[in-house]
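Morning run. Coffee first, then this:
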Amino acid sequence: MGALILLPALFLLGSCGLLEPAYWSRLLPDFGTGGSSSAPAPAENAGTLTEILSQLLDREKPEDGGEVRGVWLSYLDLSPLLVGKTEEEFAASAAQIAENAAELGLNTLYVQVRPFSDSFYPSEYYPWSSWASGELGQPLSFDPIRMLRDEAARQNLSFHIWINPMRGFAEQEIGLVPESFPIRRWYDDPALREQNLLFSEGVIYLNPASAQARELIASGAVEALARYEADGVHIDDYFYPPKLSLEADAASYRQYLEEGGSLSQEDWRRENTWLMVKTLGEAVHAADAAAQFGVSPRGVSSQNYNDLYIDIARWLEEPGLLDYIAPQLYFGFAHDTAPFDRAAEEWNALAEQYGVPLLIGLAAYKAGTEDPYAGSGAGEWLENPGLLAEQILFARELPAYDGVILFRYGSLFDGGIPAAAEEAKEALAPLWAEPAS
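And here it is:
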């Protein structure tokens, strides 16, 4: 794959910025930017690892016993286990993934089956991913998601389908896509290409202004949900690409205005992502009323609103649309501009206002590293091996809290910094010594 495809993954790891109190005040008029919390003190008072473990063992578990303890299993985790590997080799890997998760005390897998308008399983709607088979459109001879699903069931792990609804592959790869797939047919037809697709820095995106594109996104999600009898469908923080020029979707916007629309182009984009998420969520719940549908936006709300064109408050306001919200709070307590405790309290207030359970996305990938976005707190992840555990303890005190999701599997079990990962897991173990449900 070319460097263009790798850029979104790298951007995910580095997405931090300034929290804007004015934005939260707009959403939550009664919410103050100061205030105190009954949660544990920040990391600098944590003490040694032995002291951290002792403190954790003394803490009570959440009263309801239903804490979500999840991990994101990314295409970056899956690809090295699939490309060039046999079915037998991946079967062993799938069993190890589920076993590792269960042994740590996790109870939920969020498995990325569609990162780039492609698929990690045989799909009617999307071509096989190059991250699965080595070449876009080239099928595997086995179904790795079925194997993961079966292993998760053996370990009593909840299994959620994770998709990136809009992001696609590099335009230069379109010739590899069989003509049976909608995205290829749309690309080959100039009128359908203008209607259904967007292009940014050489990458194809599905255009949420198009009803056809929204239906394709929903159909693909329901296909995977039904195929694997999954417990839910999960989306993360890839919507409109940041800094997308207004020219990129000018034709769709002109059509909207000609049909009587009056929103600014920016608000129209937010309307489009709203319609996409509403179509997707309603399709998921119609296919399986018990299935959960949730989103994991960026931890900095102004980035969601201004860069990605998503209005989280509106999504939460719609009754029954979101079963949980899982913001990516990839910050330490000592982060200069986005300290974890303040960000968690802000998201809790928003979730509590609309009665939607809050899952906290945590940066397992930062364990043992320096955080260049944290200012004076850059060394916190290097110096405090118990930071993830402390963040969970803090989050458990929040009224809307329902659990955590760790990004990502490989950072803890395969490919992270080994010593730091082991120390982080050692600190997490006492919190999860008993089943959550």
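The two ends are 41 Å apart (CA to CA). Good start to the day.
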